[in-house]
Prior knowledge:
Layout: E1 7-11, H1 22-25, E2 30-44, E3 50-66, H2 71-78, E4 93-100, E5 106-114, H3 117-122, E6 126-127, H4 137-141
Antiparallel strand pairs: 1-3, 2-3, 2-6, 4-5
Amino acid sequence: MTNDEIIKVFVYGTLKPGEANYQRYCADYVVAAREAIALGQLFDLPFGYPAMTPGSFKVYGVLLSFTNPDVLQQLDWLEDYDPQRAIAENEYYRQQIEVYDTSLAPLGKAWTYLMTLEQARTFGGVLLPDGWWSSHKSVTSDQ
Length: 143
């Protein structure tokens, strides 16, 4: 198998291992997973999931590798992304971005799902300056 056949997706929210949507949408298809960093801005949305917008801050997530290209269609459905619609008509839009390992060495390009800054603000998103989102964060901080 060549690298051209590997589909790489940078995930930063509910698709990360241990989060709500990983088991259903990713677990059966992932051939590799590693901690990774992308540049953007991360927002906590009031719906129980985050949004990443373009930006220059570190966003911490996981780089998932898949061999089945159909996984992108499943993720597109989850993220309410249709490539035939204008960006503003999608909840998220899929784009290839540069991804880095935890020491900021380049790992190449990967797909990710971004939201426009205007949409994140309209949804009441709260900026997460540390670049880390977890649905478990509030549980651990309350103990």
